[in-house]
Batch of 2 targets.
Target 1
Amino acid sequence: MQRSLLCVALLALVALPLAWAGPDYIGAGKCKMCHKIEYQSWEASKHARAFESLKGDEQSQPACLKCHAVAGNAEMPGVQCEACHGPGSEYKSMKVMKDHDAAVAAGLILPDEAACKSCHEGAPHDQPAFDFATAKEKGLHKKKGS
């Protein structure tokens, strides 16, 4: 009996953290497979090169990585898709992405002004004033049909 309880307890210790794990970041390369036009326009943008703009030890500073890498992770450099749209593991499938409401329910974030300003205002360095209306009008990346 004690052995059974010990086995159940050990299994719970291993399984519970896995059950609590949230969605994972998948990287822009996975998004590219279906969103070629968006990916190409992103790739040509300053957002794609945000990590490269960091000099020296800035590339390892959490305060810099917060805005210059996905989820502050230097292994996901630049302001990739998921920096704005959230971790994609739960909404990446074609079936989910073809259903806007399902994609949002699965974690797809539709960035708003506050999301943009989280990096474009109050940063620890000088930058041009950020105007969300102008940025939205210009389009953050091209979309199919645009």
Note: The mean pLDDT is 85.
Target 2
Amino acid sequence: MKIDDFTAASTAGEFHLAAHKGETVVLYFYPKDNTPGCTTQGADFRDRNAQFRKAGALVVGVSRDTLASHQKFKAKMEFPFELIADPDETLCQQFGVMKMKNMYGKKVRGIERSTFVIDGARNLVREWRGVKVPGHVDEVLAFVRAM
């Protein structure tokens, strides 16, 4: 499936998917900055970022948090990759990651933790939905290395 080009606000200014032609993009969606699972997931991507880069892949995180929240989260966690702010859910809708979830017995609408690998020609080559954090980043890295 071809991914439509998109432009979004990120911690490095405007992020344009088209600007990464020829490069693999690992786009991971997570529910919220500074929450336990999202912090662990981001740290796993951070700790393996050099390996992703060596494999020719760019890691980018996406959530509905504000740019200000992302900038604080990125600085605190020392993420070497950018975070995209999607408060209006444009990218969330494009990738179909918004779901009704159970939070302490209450139904809430939120992001289903998901990761997408987009090749250099903007084709979606792999997706993981309903991601469990432990071991996930290693699985994504293994896939990217095998491409």
Note: The chain has a mean pLDDT of 94.
